Amino acid sequence: MERVVTRLYVEDSLSQGATVGLDAAGAHYLRSVLRLNTGARIGLFNEKDGEWLGVIEGLGKGWCSLQIEEQRRKPTPEPDIWLVFAPIKRSRIDFLAEKAGELGCSRILPVFTRYTDVKRINRDRLAAHAKESAEQCERLSVTTVDDAVTLDKLIEKWPDDRRLIVCAEFGDAKPIAEMLTEILVKEPDAGQRPWAVLIGPEGGFAEEELEALRRLPYVTPIGLGPRVLRADTAAVAALSCWQAILGDGGMRPPKGTTPVTVA
User: Fold this and answer.
1) Domain Ribosomal RNA small subunit methyltransferase E methyltransferase spans what residues (predicted)?
2) Which end of the chain is more exposed for a tag (fewer CB within 10 A), N or C?
3) How far apart are CA 216 and CA 90, in angstroms?
């Protein structure tokens, strides 16, 4: 199968023979950034239709039309893992949104805790990073970015069936690998259920916040080792552990846009 270098997420339905038009931003990216011309082939994807090969039929300033040729990958289910985090400074929150996408988060939820320093986030910028991350890492879906809420509001509306891993910097908490392995032994299908990871602010949780979280029936406190990690590092570490033990970290890596098949 032909390997394509450029992949674009599109919300339009994808099917053989269909024509898809890109918005002005997508057209500008292909025309002015990548310098592509009519006849160039790119990958088009979304979570509903999978990935398809598209051929540029026409390309101009602010517009682009593509003809859909063939399906390259069928839609596949992904682990349902959210990242909940206290906002951090700009360059590092951008990094966090990007890496959450690469690590398979279905949703990221900024939350204001007592010691959160950053009081505003640019949701559109984070969503753009999440989309670009999906296009580069072979995902078929894009991480959803929520508006920021307070911790109290988050808990008030939390779905009871979604388990929440709280990364605790103090108190009684088992190491994450030990805890997740225990859960997997008891519940072999645990990774097929909804989960979330909560990372506190740079100043840590207030003691009463952490104690209130521990009392919730869906919360599992975990530790990330003896070192104090920056918030973005803690998020990457926790998500990596979850994917390795409960998620899709045991799957073979793809080859280009063609999944590896083991005979």
Assistant:
1) 78-243
2) C
3) 31
* pLDDT tens string 36-58: 999 999 999 999 999 999 999 99
- Residue 249 scores a pLDDT above 60: yes
* Sole residue written with tokens 């929150």: 93
Model pLDDT, residue 263: 32
Are 82 and 108 in contact by the 8 Å Cβ rule? The answer is: yes
Which range has highest mean pLDDT (123-132, 201-210, 252-261)? 123-132
Rounded Cα distance, 219 and 231, in Å = 19
Cα–Cα distance list, 88 to 85, 132, 147 (Å): 9, 20, 14
Torsion angles phi and psi, residue 134, rounded to 5: -65, -40
> Which two structure tokens, joined as six digits, stand for 202?
């740079």
Q: Which pTM value belongs to this model?
A: 0.89
